[in-house]
Every structure is written in structure tokens, then in C-alpha cells.
Design goal:
Helices cover 32% and strands 30% of the residues. The chain is of the alpha+beta class. It folds into 2 domains: 122 residues, Alpha-Beta Plaits, CATH 3.30.70; 63 residues, Double Stranded RNA Binding Domain. Strand 7 and strand 8 form a beta hairpin. Belongs to the prokaryotic/mitochondrial release factor family.
């Protein structure tokens, strides 16, 4: 795996489960950084109580992602007394973690790109170039466009344009995947509470 998306959800559980989501996110961030994995929080959906989250979405890039994902993917069982309901007898709270490989989900084909050439204006008061060296790349399925004009030749600008356009389209596709996954979590009423992939016994404060 080169890049993965990690989603942590309370599965519409009570406030304690939303607190578990926030605590699990802290642990995931800490362990990923300790393992040399570049991890970023993309989105947090806050719950009603401060310090609680309905869901958290992160991206991770680096080596040994498959091993890291295996440690977290599934149901997390958190054993603690409720910090919100002091007399409540329940001590088992759950959060779910879903992980998928971004590269397997992405779709890119160079043939989907249409190129247009145009004249590039130079910096300062220079005259407009007589040769059409600037290149605009259009990703036809999404309509995303990129203009490259900093290269010295049309060939160089075409190469730069393709690189930048691919990065921009993949970023857009990642956003689409995240939105789709978040929608699935919003529809997820009950977490699988069978064999937890990890059990944590720690205060939820």
C-alpha cells in the first residue's frame, strides 16, 4: 500500500462511543508517527459533547501500511466507566475502523486527457511568446483542467501538465471516496461487536 484512507466511526453509538472515536484517533496518530508513517486528519465530524466525534477520516502514506492497517481494521472495544453517566453500569464501548487502499480505488488513463496549446506570456514586461509553448490539459471525465507554462518547451510543459493534472484528479477522486465512505458510515447503525481487533482498557476522560 502506498496510501490508505482510515475512517473511525461510532456507528451511531452513544456519547461514550463518540468519545472512543476521539481517543482512538489520538492512538492511531501516535502509533502511525512512531512507525514513520505520514498521517493527516482530513475530516472530523463532532458529536454533541465537547471532545467527542461521530467520525474521523485520515489519510496515511508510507511503508508497512498493510501491517499497520491490519492492527486497526475492524471493531475496537474500549473498556471504561462512562465519563458522562456516573451511575451507568455499562463498561464496554465500541468504535469501528474501516481502511481502504487509495491506489486500488483510483482510476487514471492518459488517454482521458485532451491537450490544448496556447501562447505563454513571459514575466514582467516581456512580449507574449510567438510560439505556443503553454499547454492546457483537460481530464475529460471530470472536467478538471491544468495549465502549464513554466517549462521552456511545449514538450516539457506537456509533461508537467500531465503530472500536475494526474495529481489533481487523484486528489479529487480521493475526496469522492471519502465522501462516499462517510455516507456509508452515516447509514451504519450497528457496529459488528463480535471479535474486536483490539481491546483497550483505559479511562475515557
Amino acid at each position: 500500500m502506498d496510501k490508505i484512507i482510515i475512517q473511525i466511526s461510532s456507528g451511531r453509538g452513544p456519547a461514550e462511543c463518540c468519545r472512543v472515536v476521539a481517543k482512538v484517533q489520538e492512538l492511531v496518530l501516535k502509533e502511525a508517527r512512531r512507525a514513520g508513517i505520514n498521517i493527516t486528519v482530513i475530516d472530523n465530524k463532532p458529536a454533541d459533547i465537547k471532545g467527542t466525534l461521530l467520525s474521523a477520516t485520515l489519510t496515511a502514506e508510507g511503508n508497512n501500511l498493510e501491517s499497520f492497517a491490519r492492527q486497526w481494521q475492524g471493531t475496537i472495544r474500549w473498556i471504561a466507566t462512562s465519563p458522562y453517566r456516573k451511575m451507568h453500569k455499562r463498561r464496554n464501548w465500541f468504535a469501528g475502523i474501516s481502511i481502504f487502499d487509495v491506489q486500488q480505488q483510483m482510476q487514471w488513463n492518459d488517454r482521458d486527457v485532451r491537450f490544448e496549446t496556447c501562447r505563454a506570456s513571459g514575466p514582467g514586461g516581456q512580449h507574449v511568446n510567438k510560439v505556443e509553448t503553454a499547454v492546457r490539459g483537460i481530464h475529460q471525465p471530470s472536467g478538471i483542467q491544468v495549465l502549464a507554462m513554466d517549462g521552456r518547451s511545449q514538450i516539457m510543459n506537456k509533461k508537467l501538465c500531465l503530472q500536475r493534472l494526474k495529481a489533481k484528479v487523484l486528489a479529487w477522486q480521493t475526496e469522492q471516496l471519502v465522501a462516499q465512505q462517510q455516507h456509508q458510515w452515516q447509514e451504519h447503525n450497528v457496529l459488528e461487536r463480535g471479535n474486536a481487533v483490539r481491546t483497550i482498557k483505559e479511562d475515557l476522560l
